[in-house]
Amino acid sequence: MKHILPIVLFFSLQYIHAQVFDVEAIKISGDDDKRINLVILSEGYQASELAQFKTDATNFVTEMFNQSPFKEYANYFNVYIIKVPSNESGADHPGTATNVTEPASPIRNVDTYFNATYDSFGNHRLLYYEIDGYSSNNTQAKIMNVLATNFPTYDQALILVNSLEYGGSGGLFPMAYKGSWGSRVIIHELGHSLFNLKDEYYPGDILAAEAINMTQETNPSSVRWKNWISSNGVGVYQYTCVTGNCADWYKPHQNCIMESIDKTFCSVCKEGMIEKIHSMVSPIDSYTPVSNSINNPTFPADFQLDLIHPIPNTLESTWTLNTAEFAVNVDAITISETNLTSGINTLTVAVTDATPFLKVDNHDAFHVYTVTWSIDNSALGIEDITSEVNNFNISIYPNPSNSLVTIDIENSLNTDLKVDFISLEGKKVKTVTISNYEPQQIDISYLSQGIYIVNFYANNVLIASKKVVKN
To answer: Where do the TM regions start and end (predicted)?
Structure first.
């Protein structure tokens, strides 16, 4: 998921002088188009301090990838820095906060590139690019211009400020000070900006909304994180009331970094973050052979995946040849002449992530990634091999249900899925076909209570199975 600037915005940025700055990689896991690219911009560092900026950014990256789930999915990220020099060091501190008695810190105004400012929106610790939202419009355009000129394929940009006074902010471009808690501030803010997590202290009525880790649902069997209830401290906890409608909202945990930066991510937040990673990056980095890459291939024929492995590896793979299972949990196979029939043969490998950070049973969404090879076999040997990849995002909800379930699929090749409902006795009780981007409600009210296995088939190949509970 790379950022592409809207055409109107792109042309408006042409009126801002485009400056080229030094871009340096500090973490490379793979090709930029197959990784999540984080870009760190310097703010309040003079040209003579940019070496220190690199050190500060590297320290942040080290701490970030020591935290779960970044630690386990470090191979899915690249990190770059853009060395943007400022004329002066630090950040503005105008002394205009309304939540402290000013001046709570020495008042100062410094000439920095992105105009980092404490006391923003009247909050002493809110370090933002400008004093308020209205004033930030031009600075935000300036940030976008720097990114468009120097690293347009970023996925998430953040700003590191050369200040030792605690402060930070979220939003489109998270910003944080470089001091001892700065890394934790940025990790918290990335939870908002990159992964759509909510604060687990009450963020105020304007920001309160249904989200991965925030809800008005109080029933433990219906709440969106129902799979995690009573595990790892997960429950349905009312927000601590300080103002507004906080009593109407609930969170999954009482000790999560989304509430306090001295904590770690809770299980519910980790799951949401990993699902976002799965939606942005396929674990299939490359594969061989690709279409038309072999001239007159001979037996035995080798087929291989190059996967982006989590740490430790939790990827699982199922290889199917002509709809029959051929191999499981291997990255490469060899096919002999006796394995093939005359004519077109179909070899498919489906890859899923079995990480314990995800609880896919009774959960809405899961991801499957496939490579399919068509092998044209004749008496003279393999005449041709073609290949295609597909990424599936499959949702089935609500689960459990006593009447209707909705199945929604999205995939890159516009492939329909055949879906079979199988009882635990092995009897097929229902078959439906689901079209891409066309959610379908399915009546299961007439089925007996219990657990059913739902099998998903793409072109008659089983690519995934999921449990559904009929109440």
So the answer is: none
Question: Do β-strands 175-177 and 156-161 pair in parallel, antiparallel, or remain unpaired?
Answer: parallel
Strands (E), 124-273: 128-129, 156-161, 168-169, 175-177, 237-238, 250-251
CB atoms within 10 A of CB 373: 21
Is 0.85 topped by the overall pTM?
yes
Helix (H) or strand (E) holding 132: none
Q: What is the pLDDT of residues 368-414, one digit of tens each?
A: 999 999 999 887 778 888 999 999 999 998 888 899 999 999 999 99
- The four Cα atoms 226, 228, 230, 232 give a dihedral, to 10 degrees, of -160
pLDDT digits (tens, 9 = 90+) for 19-43: 999 999 999 999 999 999 999 999 9
252's CB contacts (< 8 A; 6+ apart) are 200, 213, 223, 225, 228, 234, 235, 236, 237, 266, 267, 268, 269
**Could you tell me the sign of the dihedral formed by the alpha carbons of 225, 75, 53, 40, in that order?**
negative
Domains recognised in the chain with CATH numbers: 7-193 (3.40.390.10), 197-280 (no CATH), 282-470 (no CATH)
| CA end-to-end span of the chain | 38
Output 361 or 284, whichever has higher pLDDT.
284
Alpha helices, H only, 211-294:
267-280
Measured from the Cβ of residue 308, the count of other Cβ atoms closer than 10 Å reads 20
Nearest alpha-carbon partner for 396 in 405, 388, 387: 405
Q: What is the pLDDT of residues 102-119, one digit of tens each?
A: 899 999 999 999 999 999
Angle CA(413)–CA(414)–CA(417) in degrees, nearest 5? 110
Q: Look at the block and give the residue holding tokens 């001091």.
A: 179
Residues in the chain: 471
Assigned token pair, 165: 């006074």
Buried b (16+ CB within 10 A) or exposed e, 210-220: eebbbbeeeee
CB within 8 Å of 443: residues ≥ 6 apart: 403, 404
Give CA–CA dist 257/242, Å, rounded: 19
Q: Beta partners for 317?
A: 351
